[in-house]
Each structure stands twice: as C-alpha cells, then as structure tokens.
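Hey,
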Amino acid sequence: MKKVILALVAVAVVFLAYTTVMSVWSPVNFDKKQQSIEEGLQKQLKKIATLEDAYKSVYDKYASKEELIDFVSNGRIFYISAMREQGLSEEDAARRGLIRRDTIWVSAKDSLLKDGTDLAKLFVIANNPDSSIHVVASTIEQEVGDTKIDVPVFQASASYESYLNPLGNPRRVREKVEAANAKANAFAGLRVGSLTEVKTNGNWE
C-alpha cells in the first residue's frame, strides 16, 4: 500500500512539474511563432503601402485592394526626368533657366514589382490562406485655415485572429486581443496606414 501511495505521489509530482513547465513554455513558444509570422506580414504591409503611394501619385487618392491590383497589373506610373547642360549642377541650371523636365511614363508592374514581389500572394496571409490582408481606402476631413478639405487615407491590416488562430491556442489569442483593445487607438493585429489620421507607417514601427 505504501508503495502505491509513493507511486501516486511521484506521478502527481511529475504531472505538476510538466504543467508548470508547459504553462511557461507554451506562451513563449506561441510568441516565437507569432514573431516569425509577423515578420513576413510586416514586409507585405510595407509593400502594400508602397503600392498605395504609387497609386496616389497618379490618381491623388488611395485604392481599394481590387483597384490596387488592377493598377499594378495594367496601369502606369511616371517619373520626372531633369535634363541640364553638361557641367552645371541642377541648381545652377534651374537658376539660369537651362533645365528641362520631362515626364516619363512606365509600366507600373515592371517598376513596382521588380523586387520579385508576387502580386497574387501579396495580400494572402501565408499561414492561413483562407484569410487575406484587409485594405480600405477613404478620406478624412481636415481644416486648412478656414477651409475644410477631404484628405485621402488608407489602411491595410491583418487581425490577430486571422493569423494567430491557426496556431491552436485560442486563450493566448484572446489575451492578446484584449490587451490591444485596452489601449487607446490600438489595433489588435498589424496594420499600416490609418482611417482616422494621415499616416502611412505601420503600428509596429
């Protein structure tokens, strides 16, 4: 009987040690996987912001996901080329009126995707192919002197649920969402841009 009790105590001690280790290891392991996923998503979001800036340079507004894909696939962007007399700096040539500026139009796809970006995968969340990065374009009203104007804004985002749920730890995901929601102006996930203020950087920067 004594041996049985000792065996049960030993099992209980081992189980307690296991649960203690896992209570620490599971969140750490989860956070490491989260960091790896987010590194890829951050690159995607920054690229989307670059494409949005290119679209805005042509149309003076930002684009929805569908508009952005069509623009990159079929549109054109422009560069300003400055020609000046040899031996003069651009500043000197401009001061003397000896500089000519030409607008050169090129394929958006050839220019914006020359880094090897796959447009078909850019908006897809890699560890959850059924989900995608959400893109919204809008305007916000701002006062300039006595005048109110509509200023273009955009936001590209991926919620925690969209890329952390596949990791199979709903409790940890819920904790992260609640922590983000408790902060003012925070977003539960990754985003670049904003629909409430004029900005194009990411919320991790």
